[in-house]
Amino acid sequence: MKIRLIFLLVLVTLGPACKKEPRQSDYAGTWVVNEVEIYNPPSTTPYPSTQGEHGTITVSFAGMTEAVLQLRLYDQTNTLRIDESYQAVYGKDEDGDPYFKAEGTGEVLAYVFDKEMDFYGITGARIAAKK
Predict the structure, then answer these.
(1) CA 25 – CA 93 distance, rounded (Å)
(2) Across the strands, what pairs with 127?
(3) Which residues neighbour 122 within 8 Å (Cβ) at sequence distance 6 or greater?
(4) Number of H helices, E strands in the chain
(5) Which DSSP symbol is given to 17?
(6) Among residues 61, 59, 75, 62, which one has the least CA distance to residue 109?
(7) Burial of 7 (0-12, 13-18, 19+ CB in 10 A)
(8) 20 or 121, which is more confident?
(9) Residue 93 carries which DSSP code?
(10) CB of 66 closer than 8 Å to CB of 60
(11) CB within 8 A of 89, min separation 6: which ones?
(12) pTM for the full predicted model
């Protein structure tokens, strides 16, 4: 009984200290677009939609904080409609949430919350993607 109690006490004490800190490798790679929210007029479109639209956001790092975000959106005929690359700076806000800001302007391009990326690089839209 004492051994179980000690083991439980050690787990409770060390558990938070053993929490894995996110790294660049957690964010690098391809994210699949699963929602597009347009603000004017307000609407939310799930991706891939029933019409077959789909897309990806690819994140690649060129250094410790330098990154490139590439957005690709396709229509139902698999024709590439948007193919944009964004130079970004990777960092964390005061709450520890990772973000990507536009290099030069400092505007927020994307935030990552609970393994989902919210991309704001296109004015008037929020594009959600999951890895």
Answers:
(1) 19
(2) 36, 119
(3) 71, 82, 84
(4) 2, 9
(5) G
(6) 59
(7) exposed
(8) 121
(9) -
(10) no
(11) 65, 66, 67, 100, 101, 102, 103, 106
(12) 0.79
